[in-house]
Design brief:
There is one protein chain. The chain is an alpha/beta fold. Helices cover 35% and strands 21% of the residues. The protein contains 8 helices and 8 strands, in the order H-E-H-H-H-E-H-E-H-E-H-E-H-E-E-E. It has helices at residues 2-9, 24-35, 43-46, 50-61, 80-94, 120-141, 172-175, 186-190, and strands at 15-19, 70-74, 100-104, 144-147, 178-183, 193-201, 210-216, 221-228. The strands form 2 sheets. A 4-stranded parallel sheet has the order 2-1-3-4, sandwiched between helices. Helix 5 runs parallel beside helix 6. The radius of gyration is 19 Å and the shape is globular.
Length: 235
């Protein structure tokens, strides 16, 4: 998700990154390792040098790329309503338009309707309501929303998946314009590979296609490699 947020911000969009897990400094370290091409294991030491940081930021600003704002904040069990209010607060106080909200991640979100998750049906409604609320706020206030969700039904050895794998969390797929599956079987992880499969996309001719990436854990970075047609994923 930090790769998504950085990609948006480094193409001129203003992004709010709301974390329901990690603190701001951990997210900033991962993003900084990515942007400044620094080993994540050395980033804490590297970032202590203020002049070095200032030089790296100035170099980035002079690269000719449009730069947007990337705003990080950690929350505890925030609901869609809290996220919306945060976006509007940042717009007002910074006098900018927020173009995108990235939520890390959907499974940790609170619910504004008092719905529990004691049964499969409640879990279905819980996630469905949250995605509906996130989408409604995004449409009304004109920003996009990106988030992720884990699902226990998908094996770590899987080389394929579909919307049917979402099981009791299937409600998340109804309102989303785009759903992308993340796959990394053991052989791919060993070789530094990572795959995304297009599971749903409105007006998207690439549904069921796979996108292959190099994954650099030392730089917290995904590097696009190749597009594989439907049914042609070869590890």
């Amino acid at each position: 998700l930090i790769n998504v947020a950085l990609g948006l911000a480094m193409n001129g969009y203003n992004v709010c990154f709301g974390s329901l897990e990690m603190p701001e400094y951990s997210i900033a370290s991962r993003g900084g390792a990515n942007v400044f091409d620094v080993d994540i294991n050395e980033y804490s030491f590297w970032s202590e040098n203020v002049k070095q940081i200032e030089f790296a930021i100035e170099k980035l600003k002079n690269s000719g790329r449009p730069m947007g704002e990337l705003i990080l904040k950690q929350f505890h069990r925030a609901s869609p309503k809290v996220m919306k209010e945060w976006v509007l607060y940042e717009e007002k106080t910074r006098n900018i338009k927020i173009n995108s909200l990235v939520v890390d991640y959907l499974g940790e979100m609170g619910n504004d309707h008092g719905t529990g998750q004691s049964t499969a049906f409640e879990t279905y409604m819980y996630h469905k309501q949250n995605t509906q609320d996130l989408a409604a706020d995004a449409i009304k206030h004109e920003y996009s929303v990106f988030t992720a969700h884990q699902d226990k039904e998908i094996s770590k050895e899987a080389t394929d998946m579909s919307l049917n794998n979402l099981s009791e969390s299937r409600g998340i797929s109804h309102k989303a314009d785009v759903v992308i599956g993340l796959l990394q079987p053991p052989e791919a992880k060993l070789n530094g590979r990572f795959y995304m499969k297009s599971l749903k996309g409105r007006d998207n001719p690439y549904v069921d296609y796979f996108l292959e990436f190099d994954i650099r854990y030392d730089r917290m970075k995904l590097i696009e490699r190749a597009l594989h047609e439907a049914g042609n994923l070869v590890i």
